[in-house]
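Narrative summary of target 7.
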Amino acid sequence: MRRLILVSLLIFASAASAQEDVSRYSLAMIGHAHIDLAYRWRWNEVVERVAPDTFRGVLAMMEREPGLTFAQSQMALYEAMQEVQPGLFNEIRQRIREGRWAVVGGMWSEADMNSPSGESFVRQFLIGKDYARQQLGVDVKVGWLPDSFAGMAGTLPQILKGCGIDYCVLDTRHSPQEVFQWEGPVGSSVIVYPVFVAYNLPPLSPAILPSVREWGVRNPGLRSILVLYGRGDHGGGPRSDDLQGMKALEEHPGAPKIIYQVPQHYFDTEIRPHKDTLPAHTGSLPGMIRLSYSSQARVRMANRAAENLLLTAEMFNTLGTLCQRKPSYPREDFTSAWKLVLRGQFHDALRGTATGRATDDAVADYGQAEREAQALLAQGLQYIGSRIDTSGSGIPLIIYNASSWRRNGTVGVDVRLPEPAADFAVQDASGAEVPYQKSRLAGDPHKVRLLLLARDVPAVGFGTLRMHIGERAIAPTALRASASTLENEYLRASADDSGAITSILDKRTGRDVLAGTGIRPELLREDPVASSAWNLALTDEHAPLTPVSKAELVESGPVRAVLRSHYRSEDSDITVDAILYAGLPRLEFELRADWHDRDKFLVIGFPTPIKHGDFTVEKPYGFEEAPTAGQRQCAGRWVDLSAKDFGVSLLNDGLDEFWVQDGVIRMGVLRGAGDMDPRMDEGLHRFRYAIYPHIGGWRGAGTVQQAVDLNQPLIAVREPHHSGKVAPGADPRSNFVLPPVYSFVSVTPENIIVSALKIQQGDWLPESIIVRLQETEGRATKGKLTVPIHFLRAEETNLIEEPIAPLPTGPGMDVTLNFQPGEIKTIRLVLLPPGIE
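Modeled conformation, tokenized:
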């Protein structure tokens, strides 16, 4: 989908009208080599050949042409050169010091600008700009996304501005085409420059003059045009024929003046003085028409899993670090894991427009990051658990909650029993019986697997349950199930003979939130000629997807009931479990697919009675209203369709393509386009999603909290018996003991949530804690952050943790904060060492 050939044809086709005089303009020439970290090649080729060859060529051109300048983004490339080509890296640093080699972008990679979480975008800049400062000696102010073909979320200006980005170079496939101010939440804005003609501009010639004139018409008042030139995608950069073309153009009558420039200086001197006269744009920027958001679903599932686990691990490792007698924080371990995730978010890798081998690499890197996060999480929970007083009768089970609200939920745990036993009871800290389901682990009579219904687990904290051997007590619940019905205190779901859910009665309102034929998978045919990894072109036909057996109730207990349906297409097998839990107001689904279909699109339809409602989709650190006429949207953890008096939220843990038409919410699952990867997504997959009915609109209904809970489940750990005290002789201030139930951080009201909790970037000791907060519903709010940890002071920072202003603290350990609608706030708490008192 690269445009080099097309652009060349367009430019040279205009040669007939190239005699016009555009000498009043100047062309600010910036050498560039867009390098795809993954595309038709793999990362190893980029590191070993593409980047070194490109950068050596650029340095040679700089020797030949003293004024030549060059701009390069993606800190991952710089680090790779530092590691494998240190001599080349030092030459690059010398040109940076001279001001001829411009470091742009500030991100670890040129990421897809829709699918990553809001916090991932922050880490792109936090880690990227930290590297640029430490290793390259520059502070990047110019964002660089010339190939962001999938569009950009309208919430991004706040993130860009909060990360110190003032300007942004974007793809010309966005609209509007003129230089503009992109305005986002809380008054944030960045100046956006759509690339002139293309980011891989062919050698200049007089044929470009009509494009100069057209640019001037679209941008009245501006006289200097930023021009990127040089080979790209697979590297290359400026070449000899580029210099020859510039010389030929300079000699042409009526041609614009040509100067060498660097982006920062261009924007500061040529664009910023006209800032107040630039047109303004709010909301998202569109991508390619018919773009698919479902290609290579496996890579986005892996991305979401790694994001979720890293954030949970950071939170509990930070809190665990505070619990150590001699605290230190594994900053390099976390940074290395995040770098794998951030590189995997490169736009062609995460969007599914790379080859199968390149996609395999991204999935493998995500897996490595997830394994490291799991080890770091376990470390943090061990530090916290060792401080809890677990002495007394019964086997202690600690239930951890990463959400910033008190939470009910189910959690699984494997327990080793001191002796084989058939009977036991589970109680919470108050002595109340806890519902559970059990199963034996094969081959070991001493081990049992429990599924527990935990209630009132404190925000960013834990509760303690105790398992008593030899006692028999199973707390009753309202959960009931049959081969056609699943019911708890909130919902009653009915299914047909195949297992498709045909009705979901919200017992609070007596309203059925489904209509039509119910929730079932559909298989849509694609046009094999018009479809590609980028584009989704559907025919009007459905492919056969047939139920192969009657519905089966495969699990029924006091905590969980599971109704299974099974479908088969021409080449694939699909199993869907409808799952209802006691005490939870959502119906969950788990879809497992052994996928082998080609030129087909697997979707799930959710027919609702809402024909004229509002469709809202989660975006990175925010949300947007979306049309209801069938336009496909890229969304985060939730979408919602609401009428005035009720609504339906659809939650997911990694799928991101949704659209609404005639009251039906559809979710894209798997595709079989074969142009980039002839075996796209072949093999086994597992997806989780949920329907959450609510009263009124989604604001105030708990949609955000339900989506977070689905993505970051409760964690249970079997903890040994101990007093919680450290070794004798320790500093009394650090010899504290945590109670059985404890909250490290809480925030009110409910539309303010904690999205990240970590050690400040660059700190080894836990003396500066970063707490990121988000207003989730688009309304001005006075919030309160409560942290029962003694701290010296609190201050607000920007998103990359640079100080803004000190914050007044309330009585006790409260920080009061005023949020504008949709605002993200970052708070730095400077602690009293050695930690909790």
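Residues 1-18 have pLDDT under 50 and may be disordered.
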